[in-house]
Structure formats: structure tokens, C-alpha cells
Amino acid sequence: MLQKLYDWIDDRIDITPLWRDIADHEVPEHVNPAHHFSAFVYCFGGLTFFVTVIQILSGMFLTMYYVPDIENAWKSVYYLQTEVAHGQIVRGMHHWGASVVIVMIFLHTLRVFFQGAYKKPRELNWMVGVLLFFCMLGLGFTGYLLPWDNKAYFATQVGLEIAEQVPFIGEQIKILLAGDAHIVGAQTLTRFFAIHVFFLPAALFGLMAVHFLLIRKQGISGPL
Amino acid sequence: MSEKKQQVSRRQFLNYTLTGVGGFMAAGMLVPMLRMAVDPVLQESSAGDLVNVGLAVEDITTEPQRVDWKIDQVDAWYESKVGKSAWVYKNDNDEVVALSPICKHLGCVVSWEGSEDYPDQFYCPCHGGRYHKDGQNIPGTPPTAALDVYESKVENGMLYLGRAHPRGEA
Ligand code: HEM
Ligand code: FES
User: Fold this and answer.
1) Cβ contact B161:B111 at 8 Å
2) C-beta of residue B104 within 8 angstroms of C-beta of residue B130
């Protein structure tokens, strides 16, 4: 049945070569933990991607209940957490995943650094990786405000003050992020929400596409 | 220079025109969006009205006292009353000084003589930041700047306060 379906599609648009290009290739021995257990360090990139997928999916579902308004944000999070079946689980996935994804991207970066895998010809992908890391930090920073509790509010206050320390344009950056020169409030929350669920995920997708294309193009770096 | 006129080929002409029109259309789309995003940065910063904080000037001594008052804050589509506080005293020239209690280290709240070990100083309980009575931070403690100063005026014997500004700014 499935084979028939595949054949029907393949017959029309010839997807086999596409599939071969994307996924059908052998994992080199030196990155396969089944051969050398120490090769588990090569898993961190994939794990980062895996947790990112969890973040995106759980985030999309949280958005079904979440309201980015200062009167209702906390209440909507409280509601989805206490009243909605499995809401606690989905929020928990997003909450803990946000920390795990940073740990994973960090371990992945350490592996690339200590193996020298960033060296020629892979410098560009290191740079893309650094941008991905900033994107991730940005998602963590903007997401943290969304529950609109005391911890969220004051963490953002401090974060904005840090942004303000940038020479010359610090104040402008702060106002651009906060949406108001003096208040961390209604416009800060809507901005952070927009950045968290639209702007940064869009940037993340673009950067991940380039990251993976470059890996396909250049292959994984050789054994040490 | 050669006699021959610099010819623009049909292909070049179309390329330039298309790029121009395309660029114009792209700009037409992007400019309103970007202008919308940066609007808060370009807002004139409002002066902030001075409000009566309910303290008679004759009750202000040379000893800093804490004043709490409320202002009507308009945060976009959301209006609320917000609590503010200041440390107020008369300096040696008999001028009223109103200092912001927000620590210039990480934003905790400082108190006059908040620690018994440091009389005649403002003390921050969070990381032991200290300030002289005039608000100058004491070197060797965490804060990196003097306490902000409130805009103030006296009317009918009552103290009015506005917004707190860092020193060095008007
Ligand atoms: C790698 C990607 C992401 C990271 C690191 C991240 C991080 C965070 C963090 C730290 C919070 C605060 C959670 C809490 O305090 O419990 C949060 C909340 C939230 N995020 Fe994300 N996020 C990511 C992707 C997304 C995406 C793609 C969406 C939507 C399409 C999304 C939607 C939300 C929503 C609606 C909330 C508020 C609900 C809540 O606080 O539980 N997130 N995010
Ligand atoms: S916040 Fe006052 S000393 Fe750190």
C-alpha cells in the first residue's frame, strides 16, 4: 500500500534522487557511536535540532492558549497549566526544553571547538553556528518574559539594562526592545511575544537551513 | 574617448528597470513596517508632569526622609496608578534634594542609614552598595554612578516631583 503510494508519487515527480540527496548516505565510521563509543560527542548537534523541534511544536500549541496582554498573560498561562488537560506537560516541555536546548547547543559548540572542526573550509558554518547561538539566547530572553510573573518582569528589567550598556546606541536599543522609554509594560510584552514566536523562529529556520546545507555540501569533518 | 556612444543593450535596460521597480516595490513594503517598529525610539520623550507628593516643604529636614506617592501612568492602551518613592532632605544651602532610591548597581532599593554599620550613608541591602548623603556612590562598593535626582519644584509650600534623571543629564 505505502509502496504503491510512493511509486505513484515517484512516477510523477521523481523523488528518489531528492531523497538520496537529503538522507540516503552512510554515517562515517568515526562518527558512529556503535563503532567508537566516544563518538557520542557527534550527537550533540542532532540533539540540539531534536530539542529545537520540541520547542517549536510545544510553542505552537502553547500559543493556542497564551495571550500577550499584561492583564491576561499570567492568567492564560495559569489556566493552561492548571485547567487544560496535559497543559502542564506541554508547558513543562517548553520550559525545560528551553534550558536543555541551550545546554545542547553549547556542548555541540564545545565539540566543534575542541576537535578544530571549525577550521578551513568550515569557517562559514562556524559563523552561522554563532548566529544560531545568539538566536537561541534571544528566544530564551524573550520567552522568559511571556509568563508575566515577577521573575519574568525583573529578569527583563535587568536584561534591558544590560542592553542599555551598549556604547552610544544603548538607549535606542533598549527602547526598541521595550517599546517605551520608561515602562516595561504592555508594549514590551507584545514586542517580546512577536519576536519570540515570529521573528526569531523565522531567523532560526533560515540559519538552520544554511547550516545543514553546508554540512551536506562539505561533509562531516574527518577523524582526529 | 571613443566616438562610439556607450550603448545600453536591451537586456541591460530591462535589467536596470526591473531592479529599479523591484527595489521601489520592496522599499514600499518594508518602510512602513520598519517605521512602525522603530516608532517608540522616535517618540519625543514626554516631560512627565510634576506631581504633588503630599509633603509640606516645612516638614523637610536635613535628615533624608522617604516619601511615597502615586502617579497616573499611561502605558499605551493601559492606564494604572504606579507607586514611586524618593529620599528627600534639605542640603546645606537649604535647597530641597530628592534622590531616587533605585540602586545604580542592579536596581535594588536603597535606604538612608539602611545599615547600622554605616551611619550617614545610603545603603543597598543587595550587595552592600553605599552612597554619601548627596547621592555620590562610594568607590569600592558595587554602584558605578550617583543616585538619580528627581526634577522638583515647590508650589504653595508643597513639594512636587517629576521624573528621576541620572546626574550629568539635565
Ligand atoms: C528554540 C526555541 C525556543 C526557546 C529556547 C524558547 C524559550 C522559551 C522560554 C524560556 C519561555 C518561558 C517559559 C516558562 O517560563 O515557563 C517560553 C515561553 C513561550 N514560548 Fe518559547 N521558546 C522557543 C520557541 C518557541 C516557538 C517557536 C514558539 C511559538 C511558535 C514559542 C511560544 C512560546 C509561548 C506562547 C510561551 C508562553 C507560555 C509559557 O510561558 O509557558 N516558543 N519560551
Ligand atoms: S543592587 Fe545595590 S549593590 Fe547591587
Assistant:
1) no
2) no
List the residue whose alpha carbon is closest to atom 1 of ligand 2: B106
The chain B residues in contact with chain A (CB within 8 A) are 37-38, 40-41, 43, 45, 73, 75-78, 106-107, 163
Phi, psi of B64 (to 5 degrees): -60, 130
Other C-beta atoms lying within 10 Å of the C-beta of residue A16: 11
Cα–Cα distance measured from residue A212 to residue A132, given in angstroms and rounded to the nearest whole number: 12
C-alpha cell at B7: 550603448
Burial track B1-22 (b if 16+ CB lie within 10 A, e otherwise): eeeeeeeeeeeeeeeeeeeeee
Q: For residues B56 and A92, what is the distance between their CA atoms, to the nearest angstrom?
A: 53
Interface of A with B in 134-173 (CB under 8 A): 157-158, 161, 172
Distance (Å, rounded) from C-alpha B118 to C-alpha B113? 6
Nine cell digits for residue B93:
544651602
Q: Best mutation site among A166, A175, A192 for testing chain B: the one with the most B CBs within 10 Å? A: A175
Query: Can you list the alpha helix ranges (DSSP code H) found in chain B?
Result: 10-42
Whether residues B77 and A186 touch (CB distance < 8 A) is answered with yes
Superfamily the domain B51-165 falls into? Rieske [2Fe-2S] iron-sulphur domain (2.102.10.10)
Which residue in the set A178, A179, A186 is minimally distant from B78, CB to CB?
Answer: A186
ipTM rounded to 2 decimals? 0.82
CB of A70 within 8 Å of a chain B CB? The answer is: yes
Can you give the pLDDT of all 170 residues of chain B as single tens digits?
556 677 899 999 999 999 999 999 999 999 999 999 999 999 887 666 899 999 999 999 999 999 999 999 999 999 999 999 999 999 999 999 999 999 999 888 999 999 999 999 999 999 999 999 999 999 999 999 999 999 999 999 999 999 999 987 54
So where are chain B's domains? 2-42, 51-165
- Side chain identity, residue A80: L
**Predicted structure pTM score:** 0.87
Q: What angle do CA B41, B45, B49 make, to 5 degrees?
A: 155
